[in-house]
Amino acid sequence: MSPARLTVLSCTFLVLNLLAFMTVAAVLPTLIAEWGMSNSRAGWLGGVFFAGYLVAVPVLVPLTDRIPPKRICLISTVLGAVVSLGFALLASGFWSGMILRFLAGVAMAGAYMPALKILADSLEEPWRSRASSYYTSVFGIGTAISIFAGGGLADLYGWRYAFAAAGIGNVISLVIGYLWLPTGKSDPNVRRGLLVDFRPVFRNRAAMGYILAYAGHLWEGFTNRIWMVAFLTWYVLQQPGSPMFTTPVVVATLVALCGVPVSMFAGEIAARRNRKKVLYSIYAAALIMGLLLASTPLTGMPPSLVAAIAIVYGMALYADTGTVTAGTVTSADPALRGATMAVHAMLGFVGATLGPATAGIVLDFAGGRDDPVAWGSAWLVGVSGGVFAAFALRVFGRPVRVKG
Prior knowledge:
Elements: H1 3-17, H2 23-35, H3 39-63, H4 69-90, H5 94-109, H6 112-122, H7 127-157, H8 159-180, H9 199-202, H10 205-238, H11 248-272, H12 275-295, H13 303-318, H14 321-331, H15 337-365, H16 372-395
Helix pairs in contact: 1-6, 1-7, 1-8, 2-3, 2-7, 2-8, 2-10, 3-5, 3-15, 4-5, 4-6, 4-8, 6-7, 7-8, 7-11, 7-14, 10-11, 10-13, 10-14, 10-15, 10-16, 11-12, 11-13, 11-14, 12-13, 12-16, 15-16
């Protein structure tokens, strides 16, 4: 199979698996009202998916070094279909939603990075870096479709149909994965316990700089994605005489979608020039736009202008996705690529779990969803993730100088 065709098929497999990824964010205002949730609980419901991902990654992704990655991808996709359809049929409140979304995160852990490992195992440079960048950048297309389809179906038929459609997407991705994805490289003779020794990965400072930057990136990115629809819904209600040019769901979709070509472009520039300098430029732009968005609840700007700021901010904060992941992949020891990618995903989704939840807690303590200062404070929680990413890349990614 040609590198281009394999990249396209892998990206399609990923997008279909991602249909359930942001469905909760798309219907969060409805679930808050229907299930009587506080902002803190809503934040945890949005973030528990990533907790499931976090718990499963240290087990599932390192297993790809010793059993075929394709097998893990297919089993996980089946679980994703069952869980999404189960949410559509069985979810009835905060706790049932938490359990099912946690399992959805487990399923995603076995599909996302293992499929990326199949790409990395099957290609040589420069296609390995290029395909890794495209694959992780296309992640944004999946999240955008998830928001748009989830919100649109919820508006037409109810939120349960949004989750049912996500389950059908898993079934289609299962067919694609079974028929066309390569098996990937593995060594069944490698003797490792269920819990892998990650210490060699943590000693790889070059990789750890990118891994920690990814954690800050996901803290900021998913604080933005989980809370964007709820924020814009509130903001429009505060400006009844100044309607927004489209719906909050469409804006949130554009926030996710517009970052994809920017991420791909940044990945191509980083492949030709200094990767870290490209990332520092991206983090500076995201900081400026994030602070601007955090100020909007206090300014009374027209909703359409706020929506435009949110879209540009989404482009800036998503631009580093492919570049920072490609940095981890290329910095990894080839013999420990699965373990390195597991740490990358594991620490990254610590940020994805805690960012939205922390924003929800701050939103409650600062005054609630009807308080402009509370919304500004919640957005500052997200911005802090990008600041940490730049700091981590600068400090932890710096090689140690050996004296003598």
